[in-house]
Amino acid sequence: MTRQKLLIEEVFAVIILVFTVLMVYGSFEVSRAANTANSELYQNITAGSLDIAAQNTNISFGDLAAGYSQNSVINMNNVLVTDYRGTGAGWSATTGSIENYVDVNDSNRQITLSNALRWSPGDITNLNGSSLTGVTAGTDDVYLNATRNLMVATASNGTGAYRISNTVLNFTQDPTYETGNYSATLTMTVS
């Protein structure tokens, strides 16, 4: 029985030793898990700008023969609006009333454009994943005799880059217009 008793004592001693090792190791794990380190992360995002650019800076309607009532139509393409302000304030890309066509050789010869030039804003494309939600083209077939919208982004929309193409410009010639080489400036703004 002594041998059996010694064997039981040895088994019991091994169990106690294993239990003790597990307790010590377990306490190290608990104590390691209780230690933490925090790092504060910072990111600065600066405001960009609101801009408008036109790829076609010279738009020619072509030649018309004097003495006729006729239309000259051309597409204005690639007007780009970018809003990188980071505010989501929305914007309007507009043109004001266009001044008269003035003959480049005789500034006394002019064509009043208030009821001769109109536009129909074209197709909007979003660039670089910008959302088209709340971004719309202006009203079709309006004379450019007052401030007109080319493209509008409502509040909380229009952040990113947008291109409008295929805007139809339609000049209506009156038979009374004098011959000449006429020019006018179409100024577009975004605000």
Q: Care to describe what's here?
A:
- With 191 residues, the protein is of the alpha+beta class.
- Helices cover 17% and strands 34% of the residues.
- The longest helix has 33 residues, at 2-34.
- The chain has a single domain, classed as Immunoglobulin-like.
- The chain has one helix spanning 2-34; strands at residues 50-54, 70-76, 79-83, 91-95, 101-103, 110-111, 117-120, 123-127, 135-137, 142-143, 148-153, 160-165, 167-173, 182-183, 188-190.
Question: What's the SSE blueprint?
Answer:
Blueprint: H1 2-34, E1 50-54, E2 70-76, E3 79-83, E4 91-95, E5 101-103, E6 110-111, E7 117-120, E8 123-127, E9 135-137, E10 142-143, E11 148-153, E12 160-165, E13 167-173, E14 182-183, E15 188-190
Antiparallel strand pairs: 1-3, 2-13, 3-12, 4-11, 4-15, 5-6, 5-14, 7-10, 7-13, 8-12, 9-11
Helix/strand order: HEEEEEEEEEEEEEEE
Number of E strands: 15
Euclidean distance between termini CA atoms? 101 Å
β-strand amount: 25-35%
The largest sheet, given as strand count, sense and whether it forms a barrel, is: 4 strands, antiparallel
Q: Count of helices? A: 1
Low-confidence stretches: none
